[in-house]
Amino acid sequence: MSETNSPLKLDRATPASKASLGHRAFELAAGFRLGALVVFLAISLLWTTSRNMSPSILVWPLCAYLAVVAPGFAFRRRSGVARLARVLPYLDTALSFLVCLQGILHDRGHPTFVAGWCVGSVCASVLILALAGVSSSAHSASTMMGLTPLALAAEIVLLQVAGFSPWTVAVAAVAMVFVAVATSAVPRATAAAIKQEEQATLVRSSFVKLQEEHQRLELVQREREALLETIVHDMRSPVGAALLSVEYLAIQLRKDAKDPSMIEATDDALGTLNSLSRMISQILDMSKLESWRLTLRFDLAQVRPVLEAAIAEAASRAKARFLSLDLQAPEELKAALDMRLFPRALDALLTYTIRHTPEHGRILVVASQGPSEIRVSIHSTAPALSEGERSHVFDRFLPTGGEPRRPLSSGVAPYFCRLVAEAHQGTIALENVDGWPTSIVIHLPLAN
Question: What is the mean pLDDT of residues 94-109?
Fold first, then answer.
């Protein structure tokens, strides 16, 4: 999966996009604020001129505010200026309060004009709250919590100065509270809904990609297994033919019995071909065991005869290295075993142990039953492995710290035995046993 489509990249881009949206909202509010200020400045000039009043009554607060708003609009694209989004709503409220208060005080004898100033103050407060709720982005909640009480207090003072009844003041206050809630909560709820929808879309897209990747990997796995089966099948044919030929040659040599060295060489060749045939079968069975495509058939079998057969099979190899190969197992011990896989696992373990045990050494196979398990142990005088080697001897690959993995020097036999033990709901490990440098122990559950 490419980096551009990864969820991690999208999550990292989210804060930047939020900042961009907040800055855009500030730019729009700055332009709207400047336009409204110019309009109000023109209206104030017309009002003071038509009433033969001094323009300084309303013009000076508007011009002072213009000195703050104009630079903010001019430099609105700079990131530092956007911090004014939290301050300007409070200045807007103070300016609206001063202008409307001046108007009400100067038109106190004209009820119509006073009503107009009161309506204008309410509209201005609603507009200020709306702009604050839209433009203060991430700080919208804290800004509105401070701004709403201030705007309410200013509006209540103006209406009381104008002489309105408490009910009128209450109605205006309730209306402003609803405006504040609507302009702050609704945008946040909408933004949260949009964010959830984006996340849901991202999850759906990631899920679809994972499904596609899973299907691709399944196809690759099936193709790999098909190729492996073809290779194993092609290897079995010549190995089987060679095995039959060498067996026939061994039979003929034994009939003549003239050259013992030829008989010995033929037996070695037979042993090697049998080992190669078993290795080929192990490769195919490992692939099936890894993908859980091999169905095991468990039989309640006596353990001792199974071990005796495995020892008899390995006796010639042990004798060739002058090794003693002994067995300790009770006659009545039984276990649930797959009689196709478990004997082959025992043979692979004995072959591995014989190969690593020095000449004139000793191998002891022990079977015993505990309170909740059956133990099959293969003790030997093979040199003890280091802690690092012991922890990986039954792995398929050797960990290489990020480098391409490589197979273990011990071959595939220990890994195959681990798969067989796990298929029997058991485990296999190198354990410390007094008196033996090396002990391979298989733990099997008790047969039900």
Answer: 78
